[in-house]
Amino acid sequence: MKRKVPTKLRKEVYNISTEWLEGLLQADDNAPPMKPMYSVLTNKAGKKNTVLIRSIKEKEIDPVLEFLKQTLDAEYDYYDIVGARVFAELLAIKRKRMKDEYFFLGLNNGKLVGIANGRLMDDEVNISLHTLTFERQVNAGAALFYSKCWYCFEVCGQDEFWATFESYNGWVLAGLRMALPSYPWPDMQHELGGAKIFYLTRDLWESTIKGEYLKQVSRSFFKPASKELIKKNAKLIIPKKLEI
Rounded CA gap, 196 and 170, in Å? Predict the structure, then answer.
């Protein structure tokens, strides 16, 4: 806001390099790297699909952004609002406008079948943002959500994982099946739209979720990926058409 200056000045106009401004506006990124993981998923036909879960690469951001534009017109199962928010969150990585964000891709033979992202609020709390799947027969949604919990407790060493849900599918898949408790609302609100916080603690993770959730929900195994599997999924293949 413009105000009258209450003193004499040696100079009244300052030219400031945008690089100095960027130092004030750019979000720091101290999120630790995620090693590639994989899940062996069984689809409805009884066939096994191996899905690799890994962090997005910088060169993949623009192609994925272009693909996500298709979700904006998908007016069912809340794909439009989730897609719009994921688009903004991925763009925030490119523009460096979100602190400590992580963004995972789910790949089946290189093909993009899902996305999971979140961010580190601080050393104790991990914020789950969104999980999107694009090929239901692969059944990767549970594994992608689980990957964020794994990242929180096993990679980042945090104490709590905070989720919220925009779709009924997401809540049933994770919130209900993990039996996640919630904090009192509106006293405590998730940073994603001020919605209710469903949380997972380290104690619950260690005692129940870590060993049982994937087995019960998607008959999956979450393990380090082999060099062969990483190589097999090295080239990202983005579907030409959104099929959900």
Answer: 14
DSSP codes, 14-28: ----HHHHHHHHSPP
Residue 168 lies in a domain: yes
Domain count, the chain: 1
CATH code at position 69 = 3.40.630.30
Going residue by residue through the chain (244 aa), what tens digit of pLDDT does each one get? 888 988 999 998 888 899 998 988 998 888 999 999 999 888 766 778 899 999 999 999 999 999 999 999 999 899 999 999 999 999 999 999 999 999 999 999 999 999 999 999 999 999 999 999 998 778 899 999 999 999 999 999 999 999 999 999 999 999 999 999 999 999 999 999 999 999 999 999 999 999 999 888 877 888 999 999 999 999 999 999 888 7
Task: Name the residue range of residue 95's domain.
Answer: 36-232
- For the entire predicted model, the pTM comes to 0.93
Contact present, 226 and 40 (Cβ < 8 Å)? no
Burial class (CB in 10 A: 0-12, 13-18, 19+), 220: buried
